[in-house]
Write a structure and sequence with these properties.
alpha+beta, Elongation Factor Tu (Ef-tu), domain 3, 4 domains, elongated
Length: 351
């Protein structure tokens, strides 16, 4: 009797509401059994796939910095220029050396051709012929060495003009105008927003199942679920936190996502069978939870239930229902309806 009175009190506010939904058709669904994947939700961090620091490859003084921090650059844009008088001078010296070596090669080739012709007639010794041939080989080697010197000097000159390796945003500037730099010194840092990924640290106890399931969801603060691509598990644990790093590629960078943003990453950590009903079937009043169950006479009767997880419009039922029973999916239409029966279901389960 006490429970019946309590259920009647629970529905009392419904009886005071005008029967606005009587014209709607009563919708019933069967209680179904399906797998439930329990998820653990962790904080993930968005980072850029391409982020790098450009360093000097030659020495010089910074004479031009066309871009500043937060500026957008395109691939191939000049981002740093160094004073190049020393490199220009070395290139001219190398080119002059190459011309000299080529002249020497031409002279050695002509000398060898003359001696070779005379040697065939037996008018010069074998020693003179060998010497001419060796001089020709040495001249060819000097040309090759001079060509390598020109190539290196040209490369050092090219290094005074640093261009962007890819399009993106400059995030940090490590040098200023007039500053002297040496090879290996950082100049600028940047990243691209075209390719983003999410990294998250997964506790050790969840690692095995998560690695076998290889599924994860990424959710923004507004509830929007992001489309993810390749999922990578790091094959080692952090020795300090004992967590495994999980990395997910994002397929939809759209200008609203930026490196450093926090997102929620859901990773399945357990799986079990569960009974499901539509979330709309639940009637809630204070601490009580109930659904309308259709009896053998096709009449709705209120039955108290114990519920668990919610998943995409479904509600897990822990106790109070059996698989195959029919419940009312739109209980609001029973307000003021003649079919509303406040009598407690004599077969209430889970008591």
């Amino acid at each position: 009797m006490a429970k019946r009175a309590l259920l009647g009190w629970m529905l009392a506010p419904w009886l005071l509401i005008p029967a606005a939904g009587q014209a709607e058709e009563l919708q019933t669904v069967s209680v179904t059994r399906a797998s439930l994947h329990e998820m653990v939700h962790l904080d993930g961090l968005i980072e850029a796939v391409q982020q790098s620091t450009v360093s000097a490859q030659t020495s010089g003084t910074v004479v031009e910095l066309p871009f500043d921090v937060d500026d957008s650059v395109a691939a191939g844009d000049l981002i740093v220029r160094l004073e190049d008088s020393e490199q220009q001078s070395r290139l001219r010296q190398a080119e002059a050396g190459l011309e000299e070596a080529r002249s020497g090669l031409q002279n050695a080739r002509q000398q060898f051709t003359r001696i070779e012709a005379v040697h065939e007639r037996g008018l010069v010794s074998r020693q003179e012929f060998d010497q001419a041939r060796n001089n020709l080989s040495a001249a060819q080697a000097r040309v090759e060495r001079a060509e390598a010197a020109v190539t290196e000097a040209q490369k050092q000159l090219d290094y005074t003009r640093i261009i962007a390796p890819y399009g993106g945003i400059l995030t940090e500037r490590h040098v200023e105008l007039g500053e002297s730099v040496n090879p290996g010194q950082p100049l600028l840092s940047g990243l691209t927003l075209e390719q983003l990924r999410v990294v998250v640290d997964l506790p050790q106890k969840y690692a095995d199942l998560a690695r076998s399931e290889r599924q994860a969801t990424v959710t923004l603060a507004d509830g929007r679920v992001l489309e993810t691509g390749e999922l990578t598990f790091y094959p080692y644990a952090n020795p300090e936190t004992h967590t495994f790093r999980l990395r997910l590629r994002l397929n939809e960078p759209n200008g609203s996502l930026f490196p450093g943003m926090l997102v929620k990453v859901g990773v399945p950590v357990a799986s079990r069978d569960a009974l499901w009903v539509p979330a709309s079937a639940l009637v809630q009043r204070s601490e009580l939870r109930a659904v309308f169950v259709m009896d053998q006479k096709d009449q709705p009767r209120l039955r108290q239930v114990r519920v668990g997880a919610r998943d995409e419009g479904r509600l897990e039922v822990l106790a109070g229902l059996s698989e195959g029973e029919r419940v009312v999916a739109n209980p609001q239409v029973l307000v003021g309806s003649e079919r509303l029966n406040l009598t407690e279901d004599s077969g209430t389960k889970g008591e």
